[in-house]
């Protein structure tokens, strides 16, 4: 099974799949900024307000033309941060996990960051999630933890881990 990664320059063609992906990801416990249960309207609102633009690059992962994962990078526009990008919302459909999709998306988003003259990537993830091991395996460095950073699906405040990578 081959994974194809491509930049999504617009979301219209993929909006339904993007909405389904974020809903199933969140509703299966992913800590990407939302509480349960995620409704269709909330997913639609998210994608409408996070369309690709000059400072946001969105990548999609496909298997047999089915969207099974996404990641995007926010390119910092402040003059003192123009060397930096924040990796946001890495999602892989639960049915497609453990196939190397997340790793492929992360490697490709890193290439896109380099094309935009970025030399530093930053991201955060919930303490204890499997994503921590993924990011470490890709060369991200643990920078620290912030307790009580975000609520989990049960409303309990949890710690987030901060990572960076010089590229």
From TrEMBL:
Gene3D superfamilies: 3.40.630.30. Transmembrane segments: none annotated. Residues 19-163 form the N-acetyltransferase domain. The keyword Acyltransferase applies. This is GNAT family N-acetyltransferase. The keyword Transferase applies. Keywords: Acyltransferase, Transferase. Signal peptide: none annotated.
